[in-house]
Design brief:
The protein is α+β, with helices and mostly antiparallel strands and 211 residues long. It has one domain. The chain has helices at residues 3-21, 78-84, 88-104, 139-147, 168-171, 175-184; strands spanning 37-42, 59-66, 73-75, 109-112, 118-124, 151-157, 160-165, 192-196, 204-208. A six-stranded antiparallel β-sheet has the order 4-5-7-6-8-9. β6 (151-157) and β7 (160-165) form a beta hairpin. It starts with a helix and ends with a strand.
């Protein structure tokens, strides 16, 4: 591996991330706490209630709800989930609708190169719900004008997700800093690559970014 391009990408990525994290979409403050939400979590956390992600080996979807106390979101225990008296599919559907509503209220940060060509988009939220946006049914619609019909998503931690075109030549330079962000996160989400395929109803996992 040629380390210089990766170190340069890490530096540029870190600088752009500082700008990203200094801002939050103002409309999000007006949205109520979500009672049906999906967390993206690594399997080593051993959550009690999980929803399988097609293609994933190390990541699961976890039913959760926002709370007013730290850390701002709470995964359902098995007992709590049972008391809801709904299926996992029904919970996922409700969470997807909620994610679509939140995504509509957000203007992603668009990062471009020196030639004004879009490199990637990012969403950073102070509320710990960014990871759950990946299931929004309007996700492709939100980004297809920037990246085309097939959209790659990286979710290293709860507060931030990154969106790329499905082109390894374009996103590969960022995989090292993404892996570092996952390792350093207080609430890490996934080392896997999510893909929204053209015409798909849900995202799938197509690989890992630390290999």
């Amino acid at each position: 591996m040629n380390t210089l391009p990766h170190l340069l990408a890490l530096l540029i990525f870190s600088l752009s991330l500082q700008t990203l994290e200094s801002k939050e979409p103002p409309l999000l403050h007006n949205l109520p706490l979500e009672n049906f939400w999906i967390l993206v979590e690594p399997t080593f956390l051993k959550p009690e209630v999980t929803i399988t992600i097609p293609g994933a080996q190390d990541t699961v979807f976890v039913p959760a709800k926002e709370i007013s106390d730290y850390p701002g979101i709470q995964a359902f225990s098995q007992d709590q989930f049972d008391k809801l008296r709904i299926s996992k599919d029904s919970f996922y559907h409700r969470a997807a609708v909620a994610a679509g509503r939140v995504l509509d209220s957000i203007e992603p940060k668009i990062v471009k190169d020196e030639n004004d060509k879009v490199k990637y988009a990012a969403i950073h939220l102070t509320r710990p719900i960014a990871s759950g946006l990946v299931i929004a049914p309007n996700f492709q619609q939100k980004f297809k004008n920037l990246f085309g019909e097939n959209i790659l998503v990286i979710i290293p931690e709860r507060h931030t997700l990154f969106v790329f075109p499905d082109n390894q030549d374009l996103y590969s330079a960022y995989l090292l800093p993404m892996a570092a962000r996952f390792e350093d996160a207080v609430y890490a989400c996934s080392r896997e690559l999510f893909l929204w395929k053209k015409g798909a109803k849900k995202p799938v996992v197509i690989g890992r970014f630390d290999r």
